[in-house]
Design a protein that fits this description.
Layout lengths: L3 H12 L32 H16 L7 H13 L35 H12 L4
Helix pairs in contact: 1-4, 2-3
């Protein structure tokens, strides 16, 4: 249920269009999972497939509470939580793209991005560029 253009937009945003060292082997972190501006390296993945599954699973975790997930969605969330656990209170806290940033997220200390209130808007703008809408 995750729009692939949103996942691609997040990848572009988080990796500088795949130019960051973290997005390349051996780390292959396509979505900045666990990476911080203070230099924390973030998660590492053995393959691009594993990286994509973790990214999509994490997006699902933010979008849907456990009771609303399909088995397939939960399987992806399980993969994502091995890469970097997410506090239970954050699951389902961002049912819209705009709530993915920490500041607009209604649950304290939840949000994919710990900086700025416009993370979701930036992803939406990048997605619109990828779709050719701007």
């Amino acid at each position: 249920g995750v729009d692939p253009v949103i996942a691609a937009a997040q990848c572009c945003h988080e990796t500088g269009n795949l130019t960051s060292a973290r997005s390349q082997p051996p780390q292959r972190n396509l979505a900045g999972i666990g990476a911080t501006n203070d230099g924390a390296p973030g998660a590492a993945f053995p393959s691009l497939e594993a990286a994509v599954k973790a990214q999509v699973g994490r997006l699902i975790a933010y979008a849907l509470p456990p009771a609303r997930r399909t088995r397939s969605q939960q399987a992806l969330v399980d993969i994502a939580m091995v890469a970097k656990p997410l506090d239970a209170s954050c699951h389902g806290s961002a049912p819209t793209l705009l709530l993915l940033g920490e500041e607009p997220n209604p649950v304290p200390l939840c949000g994919w991005a710990r900086w700025g209130k416009d993370y979701g808007a930036r992803l939406a703008a990048t997605a619109n560029e990828l779709r050719g809408l701007v």
